[in-house]
Amino acid sequence: MKRHRSALFLVLLLCAVALVTAAFSPPEQRALPAMEGAARPLRTTEPHGDLNDLRPFGQMVGNAQVVGMGEATHSSHEFFTMKHRVLRYLVEHMGFRAFALETSWSSGLRIDEYLLTGEGDPRQIMREEFQDTYAWWNTEEYLALVQWMRAYNVRHPRDRLRFVGDDFAYAGPDLYDKVLAYVGKAHPALLPRFTELYRGLRPTTTAGKYMKEYLTRPLAERRSMATRTERAMVLLKRHPVSAQARKGTYAWAVQNATAIAQTARGYAFDFEDQEQVKESMRFRDQLMADNIAWWHAHTGQKILLSAHNAHVSYRPSDPRYPKMQGAFLRDRFGNDYVSVGSTFGRGSFNATGPNEETGVYTLGPAARGSTEHLLDQVNPRDFAMDLRTVAKAARAWLVTARPTRSIGTSYPEPVQRIAPARSHDILIHLHRVRPARLLAVP
Protein backbone atom coordinates (compact mmCIF):
# COMPACT_ATOMS: atom_id res chain seq x y z
CA MET A 1 0.00 0.00 0.00
CA LYS A 2 2.83 2.32 0.92
CA ARG A 3 4.54 1.57 -2.42
CA HIS A 4 1.35 2.46 -4.32
CA ARG A 5 1.07 5.76 -2.44
CA SER A 6 4.68 6.60 -3.23
CA ALA A 7 4.13 5.84 -6.89
CA LEU A 8 0.96 7.95 -6.95
CA PHE A 9 2.77 10.86 -5.29
CA LEU A 10 5.61 10.60 -7.82
CA VAL A 11 3.14 10.65 -10.71
CA LEU A 12 1.36 13.69 -9.30
CA LEU A 13 4.67 15.46 -8.73
CA LEU A 14 5.80 14.78 -12.28
CA CYS A 15 2.46 16.05 -13.60
CA ALA A 16 2.83 19.25 -11.56
CA VAL A 17 6.36 19.77 -12.86
CA ALA A 18 5.15 19.18 -16.41
CA LEU A 19 2.37 21.75 -15.99
CA VAL A 20 4.73 24.36 -14.58
CA THR A 21 7.27 23.67 -17.33
CA ALA A 22 4.58 23.96 -20.00
CA ALA A 23 3.58 27.38 -18.63
CA PHE A 24 6.97 28.88 -19.49
CA SER A 25 9.06 29.23 -22.61
CA PRO A 26 12.59 27.72 -22.67
CA PRO A 27 14.26 31.09 -21.81
CA GLU A 28 11.94 31.45 -18.82
CA GLN A 29 12.59 27.86 -17.76
CA ARG A 30 16.31 28.62 -17.68
CA ALA A 31 15.91 32.02 -16.00
CA LEU A 32 13.57 31.03 -13.19
CA PRO A 33 16.02 28.92 -11.10
CA ALA A 34 18.67 31.62 -11.44
CA MET A 35 16.22 34.28 -10.29
CA GLU A 36 15.13 32.12 -7.38
CA GLY A 37 18.75 31.99 -6.23
CA ALA A 38 19.18 35.77 -6.58
CA ALA A 39 15.94 36.86 -4.88
CA ARG A 40 16.26 38.24 -1.35
CA PRO A 41 12.88 37.96 0.45
CA LEU A 42 11.39 40.98 2.20
CA ARG A 43 9.67 40.64 5.55
CA THR A 44 7.14 43.38 4.85
CA THR A 45 6.57 46.59 2.93
CA GLU A 46 5.41 48.45 6.03
CA PRO A 47 7.88 50.99 7.44
CA HIS A 48 7.91 49.91 11.09
CA GLY A 49 9.59 47.03 12.87
CA ASP A 50 12.76 45.05 12.28
CA LEU A 51 14.87 45.95 9.21
CA ASN A 52 17.28 43.03 9.11
CA ASP A 53 15.78 41.67 5.91
CA LEU A 54 17.02 44.83 4.15
CA ARG A 55 20.68 44.02 4.78
CA PRO A 56 21.08 42.34 1.38
CA PHE A 57 19.48 45.42 -0.20
CA GLY A 58 22.00 47.60 1.62
CA GLN A 59 24.82 45.50 0.19
CA MET A 60 23.35 46.02 -3.28
CA VAL A 61 23.32 49.81 -2.72
CA GLY A 62 26.94 49.74 -1.57
CA ASN A 63 28.66 53.14 -1.54
CA ALA A 64 26.08 54.92 -3.70
CA GLN A 65 25.53 58.61 -2.96
CA VAL A 66 22.14 58.80 -4.68
CA VAL A 67 19.62 55.96 -4.83
CA GLY A 68 16.73 56.47 -7.25
CA MET A 69 13.78 54.35 -6.13
CA GLY A 70 10.96 53.97 -8.61
CA GLU A 71 7.33 52.93 -8.56
CA ALA A 72 5.23 51.20 -11.22
CA THR A 73 2.17 53.27 -10.30
CA HIS A 74 2.03 56.77 -8.88
CA SER A 75 -0.47 55.92 -6.16
CA SER A 76 -0.20 52.50 -4.52
CA HIS A 77 0.15 52.08 -0.76
CA GLU A 78 2.93 49.50 -0.83
CA PHE A 79 5.18 51.47 -3.19
CA PHE A 80 5.01 54.46 -0.85
CA THR A 81 5.45 52.52 2.40
CA MET A 82 8.34 50.51 0.92
CA LYS A 83 10.12 53.78 0.17
CA HIS A 84 9.55 54.86 3.78
CA ARG A 85 10.97 51.54 4.96
CA VAL A 86 14.01 51.80 2.69
CA LEU A 87 14.55 55.39 3.84
CA ARG A 88 14.58 54.19 7.45
CA TYR A 89 17.22 51.59 6.62
CA LEU A 90 19.39 53.95 4.60
CA VAL A 91 19.22 56.59 7.34
CA GLU A 92 19.83 54.26 10.28
CA HIS A 93 22.46 52.01 8.71
CA MET A 94 24.04 53.73 5.70
CA GLY A 95 24.29 57.44 6.50
CA PHE A 96 21.64 58.80 4.12
CA ARG A 97 20.23 62.13 5.26
CA ALA A 98 17.95 63.45 2.48
CA PHE A 99 14.72 62.32 0.83
CA ALA A 100 13.97 63.77 -2.60
CA LEU A 101 10.54 63.67 -4.21
CA GLU A 102 9.23 64.31 -7.70
CA THR A 103 7.66 67.62 -6.62
CA SER A 104 8.48 71.30 -6.98
CA TRP A 105 11.66 72.78 -5.50
CA SER A 106 9.61 75.34 -3.56
CA SER A 107 7.34 72.64 -2.10
CA GLY A 108 10.39 70.73 -0.98
CA LEU A 109 11.71 73.83 0.79
CA ARG A 110 8.44 74.26 2.72
CA ILE A 111 8.50 70.66 3.94
CA ASP A 112 12.22 70.93 4.68
CA GLU A 113 11.57 74.00 6.83
CA TYR A 114 9.01 72.02 8.81
CA LEU A 115 11.49 69.17 9.31
CA LEU A 116 14.13 71.60 10.59
CA THR A 117 11.95 73.77 12.83
CA GLY A 118 8.73 71.90 13.56
CA GLU A 119 6.80 75.05 12.67
CA GLY A 120 3.53 74.63 10.82
CA ASP A 121 1.13 71.77 10.23
CA PRO A 122 2.45 69.12 7.79
CA ARG A 123 -1.10 68.25 6.72
CA GLN A 124 -1.74 71.85 5.75
CA ILE A 125 1.62 72.21 4.01
CA MET A 126 1.02 69.05 1.99
CA ARG A 127 -2.55 70.09 1.18
CA GLU A 128 -1.36 73.47 -0.10
CA GLU A 129 1.66 72.18 -2.02
CA PHE A 130 0.55 68.81 -3.36
CA GLN A 131 -2.12 69.88 -5.83
CA ASP A 132 -2.94 69.20 -9.47
CA THR A 133 -0.09 67.15 -10.98
CA TYR A 134 1.34 66.58 -7.47
CA ALA A 135 -1.94 65.64 -5.77
CA TRP A 136 -0.86 61.99 -5.73
CA TRP A 137 1.61 62.80 -2.94
CA ASN A 138 -1.12 64.15 -0.62
CA THR A 139 -1.52 60.81 1.11
CA GLU A 140 -1.48 59.22 4.54
CA GLU A 141 1.66 57.34 3.50
CA TYR A 142 3.70 60.46 2.72
CA LEU A 143 2.36 62.22 5.79
CA ALA A 144 3.68 59.33 7.89
CA LEU A 145 7.06 59.58 6.16
CA VAL A 146 7.30 63.34 6.83
CA GLN A 147 6.26 62.85 10.46
CA TRP A 148 8.88 60.14 10.92
CA MET A 149 11.56 62.42 9.49
CA ARG A 150 10.52 65.22 11.85
CA ALA A 151 10.57 62.85 14.84
CA TYR A 152 14.08 61.74 13.83
CA ASN A 153 15.23 65.38 13.77
CA VAL A 154 13.81 65.99 17.24
CA ARG A 155 15.88 63.06 18.50
CA HIS A 156 18.99 64.07 16.51
CA PRO A 157 19.14 67.90 16.50
CA ARG A 158 22.79 67.89 15.34
CA ASP A 159 22.27 65.37 12.55
CA ARG A 160 19.03 66.25 10.84
CA LEU A 161 17.21 64.83 7.84
CA ARG A 162 16.30 67.05 4.90
CA PHE A 163 13.58 67.05 2.23
CA VAL A 164 14.17 67.96 -1.42
CA GLY A 165 11.73 68.72 -4.24
CA ASP A 166 13.53 68.28 -7.56
CA ASP A 167 10.76 69.12 -10.06
CA PHE A 168 9.56 72.38 -11.63
CA ALA A 169 5.78 72.64 -12.18
CA TYR A 170 5.17 75.17 -9.40
CA ALA A 171 7.41 77.98 -8.15
CA GLY A 172 5.69 79.11 -4.97
CA PRO A 173 5.57 82.70 -3.68
CA ASP A 174 8.14 81.94 -0.96
CA LEU A 175 10.70 81.30 -3.68
CA TYR A 176 10.33 84.81 -5.12
CA ASP A 177 10.37 86.27 -1.61
CA LYS A 178 13.63 84.49 -0.79
CA VAL A 179 15.40 85.74 -3.92
CA LEU A 180 14.16 89.33 -3.52
CA ALA A 181 15.05 89.33 0.19
CA TYR A 182 18.60 88.24 -0.63
CA VAL A 183 18.99 90.83 -3.40
CA GLY A 184 17.57 93.59 -1.17
CA LYS A 185 20.09 92.78 1.55
CA ALA A 186 23.18 91.88 -0.49
CA HIS A 187 22.72 94.08 -3.57
CA PRO A 188 20.05 96.72 -2.87
CA ALA A 189 20.88 98.60 -6.06
CA LEU A 190 19.72 95.58 -8.08
CA LEU A 191 16.38 95.23 -6.29
CA PRO A 192 14.35 97.47 -8.66
CA ARG A 193 15.63 95.48 -11.65
CA PHE A 194 14.72 92.13 -10.06
CA THR A 195 11.34 93.45 -9.01
CA GLU A 196 10.62 94.45 -12.60
CA LEU A 197 11.82 91.13 -14.03
CA TYR A 198 9.58 89.21 -11.61
CA ARG A 199 6.60 91.55 -12.00
CA GLY A 200 3.34 89.59 -12.28
CA LEU A 201 5.02 86.20 -11.91
CA ARG A 202 4.75 85.58 -8.17
CA PRO A 203 1.75 83.25 -7.58
CA THR A 204 -1.28 84.81 -5.86
CA THR A 205 -3.61 81.80 -6.14
CA THR A 206 -3.52 78.18 -4.99
CA ALA A 207 -0.83 75.96 -6.44
CA GLY A 208 -3.32 73.89 -8.41
CA LYS A 209 -5.04 76.89 -9.95
CA TYR A 210 -1.69 78.49 -10.80
CA MET A 211 -0.50 75.37 -12.64
CA LYS A 212 -3.76 74.98 -14.58
CA GLU A 213 -3.89 78.65 -15.59
CA TYR A 214 -0.23 78.84 -16.63
CA LEU A 215 -0.79 76.78 -19.78
CA THR A 216 -3.79 78.88 -20.80
CA ARG A 217 -1.44 81.81 -21.45
CA PRO A 218 -0.37 82.41 -25.07
CA LEU A 219 2.92 80.77 -26.03
CA ALA A 220 4.57 84.14 -26.69
CA GLU A 221 3.69 85.31 -23.18
CA ARG A 222 5.02 82.11 -21.61
CA ARG A 223 8.28 82.48 -23.53
CA SER A 224 8.59 86.10 -22.43
CA MET A 225 8.12 85.01 -18.81
CA ALA A 226 10.88 82.43 -19.26
CA THR A 227 13.23 85.02 -20.72
CA ARG A 228 12.63 87.40 -17.82
CA THR A 229 13.28 84.78 -15.15
CA GLU A 230 16.44 83.64 -16.92
CA ARG A 231 17.70 87.21 -17.08
CA ALA A 232 17.21 87.50 -13.33
CA MET A 233 19.08 84.23 -12.77
CA VAL A 234 22.00 85.29 -15.01
CA LEU A 235 22.15 88.72 -13.39
CA LEU A 236 22.49 87.14 -9.96
CA LYS A 237 25.12 84.68 -11.15
CA ARG A 238 27.22 87.43 -12.73
CA HIS A 239 27.20 89.75 -9.74
CA PRO A 240 30.49 89.27 -7.90
CA VAL A 241 30.49 87.91 -4.35
CA SER A 242 33.16 86.63 -1.99
CA ALA A 243 34.27 82.98 -2.13
CA GLN A 244 32.72 82.37 1.29
CA ALA A 245 29.41 83.90 0.24
CA ARG A 246 29.28 81.55 -2.73
CA LYS A 247 28.99 78.63 -0.31
CA GLY A 248 26.21 80.17 1.76
CA THR A 249 23.28 82.49 1.17
CA TYR A 250 24.45 83.41 -2.32
CA ALA A 251 24.47 79.78 -3.47
CA TRP A 252 20.94 79.27 -2.16
CA ALA A 253 19.74 82.51 -3.76
CA VAL A 254 21.13 81.45 -7.13
CA GLN A 255 19.57 78.00 -6.83
CA ASN A 256 16.19 79.52 -5.91
CA ALA A 257 16.42 81.89 -8.87
CA THR A 258 17.34 78.89 -11.02
CA ALA A 259 14.25 77.02 -9.80
CA ILE A 260 12.06 80.00 -10.75
CA ALA A 261 13.63 80.02 -14.22
CA GLN A 262 13.18 76.25 -14.53
CA THR A 263 9.45 76.62 -13.92
CA ALA A 264 9.02 79.39 -16.49
CA ARG A 265 11.13 77.61 -19.11
CA GLY A 266 9.34 74.32 -18.47
CA TYR A 267 6.05 75.96 -19.51
CA ALA A 268 7.56 77.78 -22.50
CA PHE A 269 7.54 74.87 -24.96
CA ASP A 270 5.01 74.56 -27.76
CA PHE A 271 3.01 71.56 -26.57
CA GLU A 272 1.20 71.33 -29.91
CA ASP A 273 4.49 70.39 -31.57
CA GLN A 274 5.53 66.77 -30.88
CA GLU A 275 9.23 67.55 -31.23
CA GLN A 276 8.82 70.36 -28.72
CA VAL A 277 7.03 67.94 -26.39
CA LYS A 278 10.05 65.64 -26.55
CA GLU A 279 12.37 68.56 -25.82
CA SER A 280 10.22 69.55 -22.84
CA MET A 281 10.46 66.02 -21.44
CA ARG A 282 14.24 66.00 -21.85
CA PHE A 283 14.42 69.42 -20.20
CA ARG A 284 12.39 68.20 -17.24
CA ASP A 285 14.45 65.06 -16.58
CA GLN A 286 17.69 67.00 -16.92
CA LEU A 287 16.65 69.76 -14.52
CA MET A 288 15.49 67.18 -11.96
CA ALA A 289 18.93 65.58 -12.14
CA ASP A 290 20.54 69.04 -11.90
CA ASN A 291 18.63 69.80 -8.72
CA ILE A 292 19.63 66.49 -7.11
CA ALA A 293 23.26 67.06 -8.06
CA TRP A 294 23.13 70.61 -6.66
CA TRP A 295 21.74 69.39 -3.34
CA HIS A 296 24.41 66.71 -3.01
CA ALA A 297 27.19 69.14 -3.93
CA HIS A 298 26.06 71.81 -1.44
CA THR A 299 25.05 69.62 1.51
CA GLY A 300 27.20 66.52 1.03
CA GLN A 301 24.19 64.40 1.93
CA LYS A 302 23.39 60.98 0.52
CA ILE A 303 19.95 61.10 -1.09
CA LEU A 304 17.09 58.65 -1.56
CA LEU A 305 15.25 59.91 -4.64
CA SER A 306 11.59 58.92 -5.11
CA ALA A 307 10.03 59.04 -8.58
CA HIS A 308 8.27 56.92 -11.15
CA ASN A 309 10.23 53.95 -12.50
CA ALA A 310 10.62 55.77 -15.80
CA HIS A 311 12.36 58.78 -14.27
CA VAL A 312 14.92 56.82 -12.21
CA SER A 313 15.61 54.54 -15.18
CA TYR A 314 18.61 54.57 -17.49
CA ARG A 315 16.59 54.01 -20.66
CA PRO A 316 13.33 55.51 -21.93
CA SER A 317 10.49 53.12 -22.75
CA ASP A 318 8.13 55.85 -23.97
CA PRO A 319 9.05 57.50 -27.31
CA ARG A 320 8.07 60.90 -25.87
CA TYR A 321 11.04 60.76 -23.48
CA PRO A 322 14.48 61.17 -25.14
CA LYS A 323 16.58 60.73 -21.96
CA MET A 324 15.63 59.96 -18.38
CA GLN A 325 16.67 61.49 -15.07
CA GLY A 326 18.42 58.25 -14.14
CA ALA A 327 20.63 58.50 -17.23
CA PHE A 328 21.52 62.11 -16.42
CA LEU A 329 22.35 61.09 -12.84
CA ARG A 330 24.55 58.24 -14.06
CA ASP A 331 26.38 60.76 -16.26
CA ARG A 332 27.03 62.91 -13.19
CA PHE A 333 27.62 60.32 -10.47
CA GLY A 334 28.78 57.22 -12.32
CA ASN A 335 28.44 54.15 -10.10
CA ASP A 336 27.61 56.42 -7.16
CA TYR A 337 24.09 56.51 -8.59
CA VAL A 338 22.00 53.35 -8.21
CA SER A 339 18.60 52.85 -9.84
CA VAL A 340 15.92 50.70 -8.15
CA GLY A 341 12.87 49.68 -10.17
CA SER A 342 9.65 48.34 -8.64
CA THR A 343 7.10 45.97 -10.15
CA PHE A 344 3.85 44.34 -8.98
CA GLY A 345 1.94 41.20 -9.84
CA ARG A 346 -1.60 42.40 -9.25
CA GLY A 347 -3.52 45.00 -7.29
CA SER A 348 -4.94 48.51 -7.24
CA PHE A 349 -3.92 52.15 -7.58
CA ASN A 350 -5.38 55.63 -7.84
CA ALA A 351 -5.26 57.36 -11.22
CA THR A 352 -7.05 59.86 -13.41
CA GLY A 353 -9.47 58.15 -15.77
CA PRO A 354 -10.52 58.96 -19.34
CA ASN A 355 -13.03 61.55 -18.13
CA GLU A 356 -10.49 63.30 -15.87
CA GLU A 357 -12.00 61.78 -12.74
CA THR A 358 -9.87 60.27 -9.97
CA GLY A 359 -10.67 56.63 -9.38
CA VAL A 360 -9.31 53.33 -8.16
CA TYR A 361 -8.25 50.86 -10.84
CA THR A 362 -7.50 47.18 -10.28
CA LEU A 363 -5.39 44.80 -12.35
CA GLY A 364 -5.47 41.02 -12.06
CA PRO A 365 -2.57 38.60 -12.54
CA ALA A 366 0.01 39.68 -15.10
CA ALA A 367 -0.36 38.26 -18.59
CA ARG A 368 1.85 35.41 -19.75
CA GLY A 369 4.91 36.74 -21.54
CA SER A 370 5.08 39.88 -19.41
CA THR A 371 7.89 40.81 -17.04
CA GLU A 372 5.65 40.49 -13.99
CA HIS A 373 4.29 37.07 -14.93
CA LEU A 374 7.67 35.39 -14.41
CA LEU A 375 8.65 37.58 -11.45
CA ASP A 376 5.52 36.44 -9.64
CA GLN A 377 6.83 32.85 -9.79
CA VAL A 378 10.28 33.61 -8.37
CA ASN A 379 9.43 33.67 -4.67
CA PRO A 380 6.19 33.56 -2.68
CA ARG A 381 7.44 36.56 -0.71
CA ASP A 382 8.06 40.07 -2.01
CA PHE A 383 11.73 40.30 -2.85
CA ALA A 384 14.70 42.42 -3.94
CA MET A 385 17.14 41.30 -6.64
CA ASP A 386 20.46 42.72 -7.81
CA LEU A 387 20.13 42.78 -11.60
CA ARG A 388 23.86 43.35 -12.06
CA THR A 389 24.97 40.10 -10.43
CA VAL A 390 22.29 37.56 -11.41
CA ALA A 391 23.43 34.40 -13.16
CA LYS A 392 23.81 34.44 -16.93
CA ALA A 393 20.53 32.62 -17.63
CA ALA A 394 18.55 35.17 -15.59
CA ARG A 395 20.37 38.14 -17.07
CA ALA A 396 19.67 36.97 -20.62
CA TRP A 397 15.96 37.11 -19.80
CA LEU A 398 16.16 40.38 -17.85
CA VAL A 399 17.94 42.31 -20.62
CA THR A 400 15.13 41.55 -23.07
CA ALA A 401 12.30 44.09 -23.39
CA ARG A 402 8.86 42.68 -22.56
CA PRO A 403 5.44 44.15 -21.75
CA THR A 404 5.80 45.74 -18.30
CA ARG A 405 3.37 47.79 -16.25
CA SER A 406 4.32 51.46 -16.19
CA ILE A 407 1.38 53.51 -14.93
CA GLY A 408 1.66 57.24 -14.31
CA THR A 409 -1.02 59.65 -13.23
CA SER A 410 -3.49 58.54 -15.93
CA TYR A 411 -5.09 55.21 -16.76
CA PRO A 412 -5.31 53.46 -19.11
CA GLU A 413 -1.96 54.10 -20.80
CA PRO A 414 -0.17 52.22 -23.61
CA VAL A 415 1.71 49.14 -22.46
CA GLN A 416 5.46 49.73 -22.31
CA ARG A 417 8.13 47.22 -23.32
CA ILE A 418 10.91 47.40 -20.75
CA ALA A 419 14.09 45.41 -20.15
CA PRO A 420 14.58 45.52 -16.34
CA ALA A 421 18.32 44.89 -16.32
CA ARG A 422 18.96 47.60 -18.92
CA SER A 423 16.84 50.10 -17.02
CA HIS A 424 17.77 49.54 -13.37
CA ASP A 425 20.45 48.10 -11.10
CA ILE A 426 18.11 46.60 -8.51
CA LEU A 427 14.55 45.33 -8.76
CA ILE A 428 11.94 45.11 -6.00
CA HIS A 429 8.95 42.94 -6.87
CA LEU A 430 5.71 43.11 -4.87
CA HIS A 431 3.02 40.51 -5.42
CA ARG A 432 0.05 42.70 -4.48
CA VAL A 433 -0.53 46.43 -4.05
CA ARG A 434 -3.43 48.50 -2.76
CA PRO A 435 -4.44 52.08 -3.56
CA ALA A 436 -2.67 54.76 -1.54
CA ARG A 437 -4.82 56.56 1.03
CA LEU A 438 -5.46 60.03 -0.35
CA LEU A 439 -5.92 62.73 2.28
CA ALA A 440 -9.22 64.53 2.25
CA VAL A 441 -9.14 68.03 0.73
CA PRO A 442 -11.62 70.55 2.26
Topology:
Blueprint: H1 2-22, H2 26-38, E1 40-41, H3 55-61, E2 66-69, H4 77-94, E3 96-104, H5 105-117, H6 122-129, H7 140-155, E4 162-167, H8 173-186, H9 191-197, H10 207-214, H11 219-238, H12 243-246, H13 249-266, H14 274-299, E5 302-306, H15 309-312, H16 325-333, E6 337-352, E7 358-363, H17 371-378, E8 383-386, H18 392-398, E9 402-404, E10 416-418, H19 420-423, E11 426-433
Parallel strand pairs: 2-5, 2-6, 3-4, 3-5, 6-11
Antiparallel strand pairs: 1-8, 6-7, 8-11, 9-10
Helix pairs in contact: 2-17, 2-18, 4-7, 5-6, 5-7, 8-13, 11-13, 13-14, 14-16
Helix content range: 40-55%
Flag low-confidence runs: 7-22
- pLDDT averaged over residues: 94
Main beta sheet: strand number and arrangement? 9 strands, mixed
**Rounded radius of gyration (Å):** 24 Å
**What is the overall silhouette?**
globular
Summing up helix and strand content along with how strands pair, one would put the structural category as: alpha/beta
Question: DSSP strand (E) fraction?
Answer: 5-15%
- N-to-C SSE string, H for helix and E for strand: HHEHEHEHHHEHHHHHHHEHHEEHEHEEHE
How many extended strands?
Answer: 11
Tell me the number of helical segments per DSSP (H or I, 4 or more residues long): 19
Cα distance spanning the termini: 72 Å
